[in-house]
Amino acid sequence: MPLMSMLVLAPVAGAMLILFLVPEDRHDLIRRTGLTAAVIPLLTACYLFCNYDLEAGGYQFQEKYEWCSALGISFHLGVDGINLVLVLLTSICSFAGVWLSFSVRERVKEFFIFYLALVTGCLGVLSALDIFFIYFFYETAVIPVYPLIGVWGSGRKEYATMKLTLYLTAGAVLALTGLIWLYTAAGLHSFDLVELEKHLAAHPLDAGLQRTIFPFIMVGFGVIVTLWPFHSWSPIGYASAPTSVSMLHAGVLKKLGAYAILRLAINLLPMGAEHWMPWVAGIAVINIVYCGSVALTQRDLKYILGYSSCSHMGFIFLGLSSLNTFGINGLVFFMFAHGVMAALGFAVVGWCYEKTHTRMVDELGGLAKVLPFIGTCFMLSALASSGVPGFANFPGEFMILLGAWDAHPVAAVGGVLGLVITATYMLKTVRMTLFGPLERHKDIPDAQGLARGPYLLLAAALIFFGFFPSYLMNTIVTGTRPLLERLEHSRSSAAVTVPAAAVAATQHPEAGR
């Protein structure tokens, strides 16, 4: 099987095997099948990452199969420097999530089927080079979240699933409106992303039309990235979701929206992006400061991490709004880093909740004495979240702030303030949960043996790319370079068009009136 098809279809093939061939009471076989279906994309993603030709750049490992030629739809897969990095992130988080899902005891068969469907949707969005299938896989990724939280979740899970579904459905419909409008306005009668890029580079849409279409795609996909004020569905979703679902929710699902905004809205509608991004920069600061301030007041560990994730999404919007080399490259790097960091944080909280049956920081304390390994992983996640050098978050945040300073200096100051707020609540949380007197939970076990595997995988990725960011950045640059060139060309065209119109108006004043 070709590599890209194997990457995308291995999880759904595993789900089909579990559904039709594995008996419901064979829990061990179900888990091993799920783990195999997750390790194949991980190995494939690592192979693609190591064999991607940095000198050639562009889309590589492409596969294209005609699906509906009358509408210009094809099953087109491929990777460049942008989505290759995010495919690697998804494969790491999903493999770790399946491993940690071995602790699921109720309705194991159904859980792994829905979870592998979720993984398929995530990988499909990031691998597809056809707008129809990007949206198709986006919906495929969102739908399984409803039963995964509603059935296997905890707390106010019914309310959380309903709110999540309504918000994400509304955003998806808004984005679909923008995508159909873009398809018809382009006049190419093709959903193929590569063909649309070439066509719109040579024949860009009218600036006014771009400004009209852009907010539909931006806000529609921005809902899943928790664009303020459409963010309130996310923290309660985190709090109610099972551990492995929280990991994919925070680590990957939100990145799908940011990737779609970058790939579809900014890439294909550069003049629309230039018009609206100053507004997005202001909203990004609200995301960073407001959600960070709310995290300061929380006592539930999942709510703390949930609002922290919403705050960090502000840095993604800040990177998007910069529209320059530092900001865009830093944005993609930060998406990878935040995904790994968030997955590690929720994995640790899941372990603590499973052993102590509480997530309230007031009821914890001194856990580092009985959970040295889990406590160390929590500390690593907290330091990475705070932007400490040596972790992968630092290069991404640093580049985003540099890009923001060049484009929106006031917003960059707000981003720095957000880092201070993040360090405050993360260190406060670490102190209250890991240190101090151990008054309760004195006999809970630490992770041992193979149970440490998923934590070590996530922590190793955070540290390795923190110390050696070039291994990631060299790949990212090959993907962002064409996009940045299109943005620069758009600016140049606008700069030439406006003076020409002004000269014409002065030479023909009546026409100008």
What does this structure look like?
- This protein is 75% helix and 3% strand.
- The protein is built from 20 helices and two strands.
- The chain has a two-stranded antiparallel sheet with strand order 1-2.
- Strand 1 (60-68) and strand 2 form a beta hairpin.
- The protein is globular.
Radius of gyration: 23 Å
- In whole angstroms, the N-to-C terminal distance is 64 Å
* Tally of helical runs: 20
Written as H for each helix and E for each strand, in order along the chain, the element string is HHEEHHHHHHHHHHHHHHHHHH
Strand content: under 5%
Q: State the low-pLDDT regions, or none.
A: 500-507, 509-513
Give the overall silhouette.
globular
